[in-house]
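Wed. Picked up where I left off yesterday with Large ribosomal subunit protein bL32. The coffee machine is broken again, so keeping this brief.
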Amino acid sequence: MAVPRAKTSKARTRRRQGINMRLSAPTLVECGNCGNLILTHRVCPKCGFYRGRQFIMPENNG
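Structure written out below (tokens, as returned):
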């Protein structure tokens, strides 16, 4: 049976675990209607369109 020769240090353990805990940047796509960058499969908050149809009426903040 395999037995470790020495205790694995906290730095070595955390370095190994940290590789798999990295956050990835969200994938942004361009809205087909207004060109705003949005998350995939979401209604555009700027124009309210999703897949060529308007689902919400955007609020004018200006």
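Quick read: The longest strand covers residues 28-30.
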